[in-house]
């Protein structure tokens, strides 16, 4: 899309071609499907890992593409998976691992998935697969239950059960 910068690193991480990244029509269709799905949901607060980036990415690129951005998406209210897991660790008197030399949390999505007994991601970053894993992780952290049937074969650790 006009004004977008596509890096080789983004192509490698996501497994898409530059042409797929650059397709305004492809992006518009995805956004329209997402907004249609969200219309049926009362609480539209975004949740996930690095959700601040995801929200900003959506809003910025929707505006670039000339798409309508609903008011709820422009709000800065989000639920961050990292913060929920961090708080859960602290509530169990566990100290989150820190990045050497930085002194900040080292909890990546894969480390959070390991903590909630879900499989690590395989291969490239896939937004839909990651979103499902993140939703399942949040359900386990907050409610102590499975959310999606496809993850029911992975038992919830006793320290998360309620």
Describe the structure.
This protein is mainly alpha-helical. The chain folds into 2 domains: 8-78, no CATH class; 80-151, no CATH class. It has 8 helices and 2 strands. The longest helix is centred in the first third of the chain and has 16 residues, at 24-39. It is globular. The termini are far apart. The model has no long low-confidence stretch (mean pLDDT 87).
Please name the defining characteristics of this protein.
single chain, 162 residues, 2 domains, two-stranded parallel sheet, 8 helices, 2 strands, globular
How do the strands and helices of this protein lay out in sequence?
Blueprint: H1 8-14, H2 18-22, H3 24-39, E1 46-48, H4 51-64, H5 71-74, E2 78-80, H6 81-91, H7 109-115, H8 127-142
Parallel strand pairs: 1-2
Task: Give me a quick take on this structure.
With 162 residues, the protein is mostly helical. Helix content is 49%, strand content 4%.
